[in-house]
Amino acid sequence: MGSIALRGICKSFGGIEVIHGIDLEIANGELVVFVGPSGCGKSTLLRLIAGLERPSSGLIEIDGRDVTRLGAADRGLAMVFQSYALYPHMTVRQNLSFGLENLRMPKAEIAARVAEAARMLAIGDLLERRPAQLSGGQRQRVAIGRAIVRNPTAFLLDEPLSNLDAELRGTMRAELAALHDRLGATMIYVTHDQIEAMTLADRIVVLRRGRIEQVDTPLNLYNRPANLFVAGFIGSPAMNLFRTEARGGRAVLPGGIDLPVPADGPVVLGIRPQHLHPAGPDEAGIPAELRLVEALGAETVLHGITDSGEPLVAVIDGQPAVTRGQRLRLAFDPADMHLFDAGGRRIG
Amino acid sequence: MTGLKTFITRRRGHGGRWHWTDVASWIWLIGGTILMLGPALWLLSSSFKDPAQLAEFPPTLLPYVQRVAEVEGFDTPLPLYTVTLPGGETRILAQIRRLGANAQMVDPADPALRISVPISQRAPLREIGLATANYTDPFLHFDFFTYLRNSVFVTVTATLLTLLTNSMAAFALSKYRFRGRDAVMLVIVGTLMVPLSVILVPLYSVVSRVGLLDSLWGVILPTIATPTGVFLLRQYMLTIPDELIEAARMDHASEWQIYWRIVLPLSAPALAVLAIFSVVWRWNDFLWPLIVLTRRELYTLQVGLNSYAGELNVQWHYILAMTVVTMIPVVLVFILLQRFITTGIAGAGLK
Amino acid sequence: MLPFVLAARVLEPVLALWQRRTGHAGMIAVFLIPNMTIFGIFVIVPLVLNLLYSFTGGAEILLEQRPWVGMQQYERLLDCQNHLQPMTCREDQFWRAVHNTARFVLSQVALMVTVSMITALILNRRIAGRGLWRAVFFFPVLLSPVVVGLIWRWILQREGLLNLIVVRLGGDPVIWLNDRFWAFAAAVGVSTWAHMGFYTLILLAGLQAIPRDLYEAAEMDATPPSRVFWRITLPLLGPNLAVVLVLALIRAVQIFDEAYVLTGGGPGTATMFMTQYIYEVGFASFLRNPGLAAAASILMGGLLVVLTLIQLALSRRAERMRQR
């Protein structure tokens, strides 16, 4: 079992509130990713769940039991720190068994659990080394191993891959996903990297300034962002946004594209760069002048500017024959369009 | 206000109740503060007491001075006392003189009337006040000013020379490769461990041979080649990139200019630390000046103070005041430059 | 400062000329010579002379007037029927000083390390006003030994503050510095008072270098506080603690000024330590004997060299640990 519930969690440091009333339910076995720009409170939220910080108000429940007042030691959770926080003066084996010794577990069982974790993570031949003698990826495994041997109710991972180089990060990401499948345990994973979030998560929690912006599956977040912030944050390059005025159920975009919209007054129209394509001869399109062409081989990223001076980014498959300074009209399917009201909330 | 309260009661851990270790920590800190600062404050308070008050037991916490009154017919002001008269009435009287177990008193309002009072029936009338004569007398009547001047001269000269010679040597040892450099460094590191007390006798003979006995230069010169200073500055200069020096050479700077205009200004933080420590060391030096200086007019404050305190007839009221004066520069350095000092120690283990 | 700046200005063209004629080698000499000359005369020469002095006799200070006596000074210092009983030694004062110093070192270092360790641990907690507390404990470190000695002489005198407290608590006043036991305890206590801030600072720096998340990891691992201290704090502080220990040892062996001003070595010889013995035999007594003082200082220097070598090795290890 490993369900976690947050009810009205607030946290302030020295009179400044950094978490403003978070409500969240995490089901047993789920992998939930907290994502958001730096300073959004995602790490603080994780530390509140861990018990390393205490909320100013609100309740934390694990498996239906109120643990708000319990210390980190008594919550049965395990954490993987961003810096790994391996004890530098202990061998890998000692690092793994330290927490189990605290529980006064019999020696034989400790040895068995360490061996099992070492086998699972393929660190069996590193057990007598110290952290200083390990590579970054090996340290990462040991840090995860230290969490696994505890057999915790849930795993908390605080930006675990951020200290690795890009290639290793990709490998470890896949291993983490496999590990989650095998263990079937609840995991809460904090990252600022949306690719990690999209690839790993069962559900993503998008945070901004101590508030939840949206909670949903990765694809729902991408397909139906609840507001402008999520629309801009998820997806790369970021969604193109056009501010315009809707009158009589219709809105007009640059280039004379006239669209039906279920709203009146100021609105924001969003279209992902991947959904733009060069307009056919009798197709309506947004005219833009290309300022930069990034040819990546499989796709080409076009950075343009519209006649009204707004930036426009499009991702085109393949290697279209376009050059800098060229004028182009870019069209899209109205079904791919996202519509937001003046307050930034999604319409429809 | 709640902000202040949470600031003060903030503890390791998080929220929750006071743990016994929190209470113990605060007791330790407050007790420690009394023990650390109390003696110096007690010294300060005592230094403003007049000799009569210093001889009292139990002593008072704060310095008091006797109230006095001008009484007609007497040239000097007379001390005032609270007197309990035989009838049980208490009055404030001025004392003219003491005769055995009795004191001859006078009422300041009625100078003609003399009253004889047993001294057990009178208590001095005092108010909180400072016996500043403790401070002025040593300057006016003793050599205290000379000692102070000697100490200032030794401290300032030794510090400036230390900074100059040590930084020159550190520059050569950090920015040039030459044969014997490692040997020189080895000698310097090796002598880091030679305390003065180990070479007392031969150092004395060397200083006497070069004619510096009973001279302030005899105090200054042996201290300025401190291996610690060279070591500290060299470690710092090693962190200055060599590219900077090569760039200066490309700009036709002479080696002296490189030292004086580039490396020295860039070493300011390390120089500041060394300067602070040098000032404190030289100001506080005791054993070596005690040996080199035998003529009173050459004594530094520390030696002079010790010799006063060692005299048979110890005049504590002067000693205490002079101790406070001796303490002042160091206390000022401490208050103004505390941050430099603590980082210097944490970084280099200096003392 | 001004004369230095002016001198540097004047020197600039002169040295530029010198550099043109002699090149870098000449300039290296210019930079090194002032320091090396002073260093040579006042450190290296005395170091060598010390050995020579210890082989000569008489009261003369100039070496050429002193007769060669070979190992006699050392024999005199070391001649004992029972080294644990100073009275049975030919140079009983020296052995008293050695015994006092040994007792002093053991008690003072133990007290010093304990007290500064506790203070550092407390200051490392998330406590309000840490900088202020640190300053308070550091304050006496900068005071001169003479000032320290006088402050405490004043407090420990018959009509002093300590006796006031004793009397208020219902005890009888004690003349602390006239009592062999209390005078020794005062020397230990006062020197600890004066220097503990320094060691506290080093230990605190060591404690703060231990990453916070190690403690958080230990918290997640449900580690009891005592086990955190013994298994995490102490091992990671180990090198710093060793440096502090040896540094305190080295300083304690050389104890002189504050004890001298406080007690003058008395009552009797209860607080006479090795440096005071060297000072008195070499300079202050009527029967001054520089050769004997030199021999004693070489014995003490040998001890210090051993201790310092240990310290250097330990601090090098501490440096390596920190770089990891």
Automatic annotation (TrEMBL), chain A:
InterPro entries: AAA+_ATPase, ABC_transporter-like_ATP-bd, ABC_transporter-like_CS, ABC_transpr_MalK-like, ABC_transpr_MalK/UgpC-like, Mo/tungstate-bd_C_term_dom, NA-bd_OB-fold, P-loop_NTPase
Descriptive protein name: Carbohydrate ABC transporter ATP-binding protein, CUT1 family
PROSITE patterns: ABC_TRANSPORTER_1, ABC_TRANSPORTER_2
GO BP annotation list: carbohydrate transport
SUPFAM superfamilies: MOP-like (SSF50331), P-loop containing nucleoside triphosphate hydrolases (SSF52540)
GO cellular component term, pick one: ATP-binding cassette (ABC) transporter complex, substrate-binding subunit-containing
Pfam families: ABC_tran, TOBE_2
Domain of life: Bacteria
Domain ABC transporter, residue spans: 4-234
Keywords for this protein: ATP-binding, Nucleotide-binding, Transport
Listed GO MF terms: ABC-type transporter activity; ATP binding; ATP hydrolysis activity
Family to which the UniProt record says this protein belongs: Belongs to the ABC transporter superfamily.
TrEMBL record, chain B:
GO (cellular component) term, any one: plasma membrane
Major localisation: membrane
One of the protein's GO biological processes: transmembrane transport
Record carries keyword Glycoprotein: no
SUPFAM superfamilies (alphabetical): MetI-like (SSF161098)
Subcellular location: Cell membrane
Record-annotated membrane-spanning stretches: 20-44, 152-171, 183-204, 216-237, 258-281, 316-337
Keyword terms, alphabetized: Cell membrane, Membrane, Transmembrane, Transmembrane helix, Transport
Topology in the lipid bilayer: Multi-pass membrane protein
CDD domains xrefs: TM_PBP2 (cd06261)
Transport in keyword set: yes
InterPro entries the UniProt entry points to: MetI-like, MetI-like_sf
Annotated ABC transmembrane type-1 domain residues: 148-337
Family annotation (PANTHER family): ABC TRANSPORTER PERMEASE PROTEIN MG189-RELATED, ABC TRANSPORTER PERMEASE PROTEIN MG189-RELATED-RELATED
Family, similarity comment: Belongs to the binding-protein-dependent transport system permease family.
Protein name: Carbohydrate ABC transporter membrane protein 2, CUT1 family
Organism: Rubellimicrobium thermophilum DSM 16684
Automatic annotation (TrEMBL), chain C:
Membrane-topology annotation of the record: Multi-pass membrane protein
Location of the ABC transmembrane type-1 domain: 98-311
GO cellular component: plasma membrane
TM annotation in the entry: 28-53, 104-123, 135-155, 181-207, 228-250, 292-314
Similarity comment: family membership: Belongs to the binding-protein-dependent transport system permease family.
Chief site of localization: membrane
GO biological process terms on file: transmembrane transport
Coiled coil spans: none
Subcellular location: Cell membrane
Alphabetized UniProt keyword annotations: Cell membrane, Membrane, Transmembrane, Transmembrane helix, Transport
Entry-linked InterPro entries: ABC_transporter_permease, MetI-like, MetI-like_sf
Keyword Transmembrane appears in the UniProt entry: yes
Superkingdom assignment: Bacteria
UniProt key word Glycoprotein: no
Name of the protein in question: Carbohydrate ABC transporter membrane protein 1, CUT1 family
CDD domains in alphabetical order: TM_PBP2
